[in-house]
Specification:
This protein has 369 residues and is of the alpha/beta class. It is 66% helix and 9% strand. It has 15 helices and 5 strands. α7 packs parallel to α11, α7 runs antiparallel to α12 and α7 runs antiparallel to α14. 36% of the residues are buried.
Length: 369
């Protein structure tokens, strides 16, 4: 029995290593995923752009501002002069948080009372917001200890007051569930389309397509539409569950959301057909789909901010359609965005979809015979 098992293991290794494509799939994907996870998958927050709205000109507020400016992770983007300047900055994501020092901050501290310090944070990414607030709390706590030591006080002089925009309770599900819509839609679409042509070749039925009256473009379209329709249906079901079961607010335009979904599915279908055109067996198609999906999810900003990735990795994310669709999902769900805001996310997906579909069509025609 042991001899037969060893012979079977030997045969499986020969089958894997004899095919150049299989050897490539065995070596390249783990290396790519290692690099992607090593550089992109980090929860460290190394860059916190903030705006300062200081209504107090005393020495106490200057010392607190110096503490923030001296912290390596905090970068002051702009100094505000009116409360009305806060909303545009947060809407455009120019800053992650706004520090507001009231006009009586110094006077309250000198009189021995606790002085409120308001921090307005962008809560669209609840994980990033919580990490940023922890950094703010650490700086304020250090400032309090220094003030108590120098003035002999008993109670903390500065009292931190936080407010999160777009996600008031910093619910992590409000951030992750819209992203899951894109991720699951991509997985299903890729698996359906990446295996379709490879399955025909493996089962020996691909030759039967060649003797039918169907032209290559018609065959390609027939292979693409099932994945597109399944993606639309699945996304609709997940959207319903997200809003009805998990109570994630859907504040924006459904028309804009489905326009983004359609372009995203075109990109996914194009990439899946591209893989299927190259794959000879279903195993190769499956491995090729996962080779595409894992980096696509990691580089999309689903869990870790793209701004924290190295510049070279950030450039690679520009060809990831999931990156743009996640922005559309979160803006529609949490910000109530419409076409005017989402246009910059729609046209890159249209370009990616057109390029992948054109390349898949070319490969399909040249590999039919």
């Amino acid at each position: 029995m042991l001899t037969r098992i060893i012979a079977l293991i030997y045969k499986e290794f020969l089958a894997l290593l004899k095919d150049p494509r299989s050897r490539l799939v065995l070596i390249v994907p783990p290396m790519i995923q290692l690099l992607v996870f090593g550089y992109a998958a980090t929860f460290d927050l190394k860059h916190i752009p903030y705006a300062l709205y200081n209504e107090d000109s005393g020495i106490a507020s200057r010392d607190l501002i110096a503490a923030f400016d001296g912290a390596p992770v905090f970068q002051r983007v702009i100094a505000l002069h009116a409360e009305g300047e806060i909303a545009p900055l947060m809407d455009r994501r120019d800053v992650l948080l706004v520090i507001h020092i009231g006009p009586r901050f110094g006077a309250d501290l000198l009189s021995g009372r606790s002085a409120p310090l308001q921090v307005i944070v962008d809560g669209r990414n609840s994980n990033t917001a919580m990490i940023a607030l922890n950094y703010v709390s650490a700086i304020v706590e250090q400032y309090n200890r220094a003030w108590i030591a120098s003035h002999g006080l008993q109670s903390p002089p500065a009292k931190l007051m936080t407010r999160a925009w777009f996600n008031p309770n910093l619910e992590s599900r409000w951030f992750f569930i819209p992203g899951i819509v894109g991720m699951l839609t991509l997985v299903t679409t890729m698996l359906v389309t990446a295996l379709t042509v490879a399955r025909e070749r493996e089962q020996g039925t691909f030759d039967q397509l060649l003797v039918t009256p169907l032209r290559p473009g018609e065959i390609l379209l027939g292979k693409a539409l099932p994945g597109f329709i399944i993606g639309i249906i699945q996304a609709t079901v997940i959207l319903f569950i997200a809003t009805a079961w998990f109570n994630v607010p859907l504040r924006g335009s459904l028309t804009a959301l489905y326009a983004g979904l359609s372009l995203f599915l075109l990109s996914g279908v194009g990439a899946g057909l591209l893989i299927s055109s190259l794959a000879v067996t279903q195993q190769q198609g499956l491995l090729g789909a996962f080779l595409f999906m894992v980096p696509a999810v990691i580089l999309s900003g689903f869990a870790t901010p793209i701004a924290n990735m190295p510049p070279l990795v950030q450039a690679v994310t520009l060809i990831d359609p999931l990156r743009y669709f996640l922005v559309i999902l979160r803006k529609v769900f949490l910000e109530g965005a419409g076409f005017d805001v989402l246009l910059n996310q729609l046209w890159p997906m249209a370009l990616i979809g057109a390029a992948t579909l054109a390349l898949a069509s070319w490969l399909f025609r040249h590999r039919m015979y």
